[in-house]
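Problem: given the chain below (1153 residues), write out its structure.
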Amino acid sequence: MFDEYVEHASDPPARSQAAYGLPNVQYEGFESTPYDQGSVVDTPSDAAFAAGPALPSIFELGRVQYTLPAPLVSMVVSSNILIMAFVNNTLHQLNLRQPDAIATITLTTKKSLSELNIYRLFADPTGKHVIITTEQGDNFYLYDGWTKARPLSKFRMIIEGVAWNESPPPTSNTKIITTREILIGGRNGTIYEAVIDAHDDFFKSQDRYLQAVYTLPDKQAVSGIKFETFSGPDAKSRRAAILVTTNTRIYQFTGSLEKKGDDVGKLFESLFEVYRTTAPKFVEIPGKLSRSDLQFFTPSRTLEDISAPRRQLGWLTASGVYHGSLPLPPTSEDIIDSASLMPYPPSLNSSATDSPLAISLTEFHFIFLFKDRVCAVNALDERLVWEEALPLKPNEKALGLATDTKNSTYWLYTDSALFELVIKDEDRDVWNVYLRKESYDLALRYAKSSPQRAVVYSALAQRQFDQGNYIQSAQSYAQSSTTFEQVALAFLDLGDQGRDGMRTFLYARLERCGKGELMQRMLLATWLVEFYLSKINILDDIIASEGASHDVENLKAEQSLLEDELKAFFDTYKSNLDKKTVYDLILNHGRQDVFIYYATAIGDYEKVIEHHIMDEAWLKAVDVLNRQSNLEFYYRFSPVLMRNVPKDIVDSWLRQPALDPIKLIPAILQQQQRPTSQSPLSANHAIRFLQHVVFNGKSTSPTIHNLLLTLLVTSSTNRDATNTSPQIPTTLPLSSQSQAPSTSTSGVPESDLPLLRFLSTAPVDPLTAKPYYDLDYALRLCKQNNRLQACVHIYAQMAMWEECVELALKMGDLELAKVNCERATEDASHGDESLRKRLWLKVAKFVVQDKKDIKTAMKLLDNSPVLKIEDILPFFPDFVIIDDFKEEICNALEGYSEHIESLKAEMEEATRTAESIKNDIRNLQNRFVTLEATEKCSICGHALLTRQFYVFPCQHAFHADCLIGQVKEYLPATSLRKLVTLQNTLVRMQAASTPPPVVAPPAPASDRNRPGTPTGPPPRAPQSQRTLLSAAFNDPTSMLINPAVRLASSLNPINMPRNIFGVAGDRLRDLIVPDALANAIGTGVGNLPGVNLLWGGGGGNRELSGDEAAKVEKIRDELDELLAASCPLCESVVVGLDKPFVGLDEVDESWQL
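Solution.
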């Protein structure tokens, strides 16, 4: 801000601070001082801060590089708006945010400007309203943005001071174009209330309201005036405090502000009305002063209470500056608080003191402007901290100081130059001032660095130590720069009296230790534990010794408080303690309760549980076990807890689903070893846990299932726990389902019920449909313990139905035997019928022979689906009266008759169906297709009627040999093998009665067709049975044989290899001769061309017998089914519908252009 126009001095002034006896205040604070005997630390003196490099000055005066157009008369600065008045009655207005834009302001007056002399300027805190007063009493008003100052016609006085209205406007969004009610002090000693409006109204002047409200008693010229408003007792009322100064007096006015209606002005009329009859309070300081001044400073609200800001004031008098604070609302009848008179600092040249020309207030200093120098005095200790001579030219005269209260900038002006006073780090040394004044709280507030705060705490701690406030002193020492050893020795020298202070000091130092200082933190924490334990034991001894004669309730309360503090300390600093060391300390002091708490705090539950078990505090041990998550502790301590508190430890197990039941088996077995003196009706909690694991936990471990079965079998009485399991039914259902229990509730011992419930509801393996427990082991265990009902159920699980029924009958439980017979009936429904009958016969025999209950035996016939009356008759005695079952015998005979009649009806229906089928077959043989004489084969294209052919419903026609050659390319290997087998059958039929054909020597072509020419084959040389099939096709002579002979030769069993049906693909297709096979299909074996079948002993041909013809016809039908099942052309189209037009390995260029 305006810095480019300020020429800062690079060197300090000729006279340094040391020349005036001023101390060199160091920024960082202090040097260590030796400790005197009897005190821990000394309060730092000025000498403690004298050493070290000199710090830069807080104040720096710089000339503004700006040439004045004329000698300067007055200047004001407000909200970065700087306004200067010159002797030629012109004004320059400068916005410091835009220093290049300078506005020239002239006065609007009917008088000649030469007749006016500007005296002073007054600007409000916003910089928008400016009042210009002249030596002739004419006054002008300038508003922000105007280029001409307008006259105030009603203002006919020389203004010496203006009290602006700084209270917030009624509405924050209203543009401030009026000054509102202000107070003006005139040279005539009169105080005026005025309102100036900046509205452009031709018929109204800017001075809308002006009224004299009070005249000072002695009518001295007013040198300064200021008012502040504040809330009254009623939140809606407003009050004001007014200060008015002259050269020798300062007046105080207070009262309520009452404004009647919406009229402009008349705000202070009621306040001053009181003082017309009563003299105001004032302070008089006599003396001669050329010019008095009243200045104020409002401190930053970050350092003051917002609800009650305290303003500082300074009043120039002949004797010095009268200063104090202005609390709002006032705390007493005197508006000014802590008022005092400070003499002016001496001049540079002599010890004589002259009066300053102007004063300005900062937060901590008074700035005085003398005719040849400017200086700053600390307002806290009234010491001169800075002084600099004014660089005045000849005949140049200093005029005054200007302060921008909103932006805290300070300006000095002469008649020909401007200077800016730059203040940096003003509160740098304030902490030291407050420290010397023993205002430690304020010193700590303004101390900026850790060393500075450490010095303050050292002084504060020493003062508290000297006063006997050892605990407060320890807290301060912990934050001071005093060494640990010195503080510790100081408290230890006090004995028991300093023990509490020492403990507090250690605690505070521990809190301030960094996280990386592990060793220091551990030492402090361990020492604190020792202090706590010692203090608790001391209180124990005092309580024990004085318990009979004195009231020790306070001591007990103190001991309880210390124990709580120690527990809280363990919770906070457990990571800074060594476990073994603390255990030793606690045990040496015999504090078992502290031992338990510390072990719990650090999570050493093993120690806690061991301690409770040694004390036989079983329930406490279980409680600690529940509050930790280490499963290994469950496995380690459960055996001993199971022997003593089985219910509680099992409840703990049930709350921890992550436990491995296998590892708890040693503890579970402890339930069986408990003392026998317990109630026989007490619950077996081991069984309760295992049932939870099996049914709720879905355990599939055979070990767990076998263990539960063992406990249930060996348990002698019914356990309450087994009756309370929600997963197991309380009754045993007797149904025919696969998992239904094989027991009856009648006559079942109470001790067997839990076991039977388990056997009937135990989970089964979904893969094997068997329970997870070992059936053999279960059967052996139940037999050893005489649990017959359970044995029956296990037999049923093992599908040993005969043993199951026999054991049930041996027990005399007929219903149980019948239920298992029904289950066996369902189990054998897909298999052995004889087993079902045997089981029911065992039951019937038991009923008839053992129970001799004929009626029950008759009912048994109704329940059994396999028993008949004739099955149980042999079990009756030889001489028995049939009256009881005569009706059943008659019913059986009637049933047989009805069954015979139904069989007859079924046979007649079958006969009719067979005749219908025969008629359908005969009708099928009469189907025909009309063909043209020019019809051609769909494969070779030759005339169709020239040889054997096939016609399909789709109108495709093929020669038989063409069809065979086409079909064999597409038939699968299984169909090819069947086709070769049928060919082989035809060959065997021919070979059984016909000698092998003989190939005759080649006859001349002319004799081949002559009658009588031998056509039989020559004698065949014997061949091995291992001859390959290919030999029949590779032999040149075989080409001379007609197709039928070649077929017979190639398919002769003697010539066929053993692996004929192992040949796949093309080899099988090579074995099929289409021409010969076509002739065989068309004419039959007896009519194969070139084949002479000899039947009987004669040498001529004979007709086939009926059986042989039927067999040949059957073979033809089978060949037709293979070859003519479907049209090969149509089938190939259907099969290829899902195939692409172009294969993956093909290249189609038909679409290329």
